[in-house]
Amino acid sequence: MSSSHLVHAEDLPWTEVAHGTRVALKRKQLGAAAHGRKLGCSLVELPPGRRSWPLHYHLANEEALYFLAGVGTLRLGSEEVPVREGDYVALPPGAGTAHQLINSGAEPLRYLCFSTMEEPDVLVYPDSKKVGIMAGAAPGGDKASRTLHVNLPLAASVDYWDGEEP
């Protein structure tokens, strides 16, 4: 194995993601740094009281979470499930595994997030009633390689023949 496929988490910089006062996290994209192709892995740290990405599910990619430290609440479909160090959760594609993490503890919630890196992928956001479509690079993949990335209201719809010559 080439050493370019080996990374040490402490050698990678954190990337911060934040939106408003509810969503905030930092992550290290281990899979991309190790030149992974079909399996992504990020080390994620979620501060107390904050949420991860908006509630969402994938139609192509499967995700999994393994908790390293802290406690939290996983919104999973219509349930709220407590999570803690040592827990593992599989998130296959589909509406039944819509997910979002909330750090309900006093310490950072630290976990590994694994994902298949299939593209194209469609993401559905039940709370905000929108859909995201990505092609060219999977979610979490190289944004410069994206050939399509659009977010639309779920209610957006046109007839198949709209805009086509008669």
Low-confidence stretches: none
Helix content: under 10%
Oligomer: single chain
Written as H for each helix and E for each strand, in order along the chain, the element string is EEHEEEEEEEEEEE
Description:
There is one protein chain. The chain has one helix at residues 30-33; strands at residues 15-19, 23-29, 39-46, 57-58, 63-69, 71-76, 79-84, 88-91, 99-102, 109-116, 121-125, 130-135, 148-153. It has 166 residues and is mostly beta strands. It has a six-stranded antiparallel sheet with strand order 1-2-3-10-5-8. The chain is globular and about 60 Å long. The termini are far apart.
Note the topology:
Blueprint: E1 15-19, E2 23-29, H1 30-33, E3 39-46, E4 57-58, E5 63-69, E6 71-76, E7 79-84, E8 88-91, E9 99-102, E10 109-116, E11 121-125, E12 130-135, E13 148-153
Antiparallel strand pairs: 1-2, 2-3, 3-10, 4-11, 5-8, 5-10, 6-7, 6-9, 11-12, 12-13
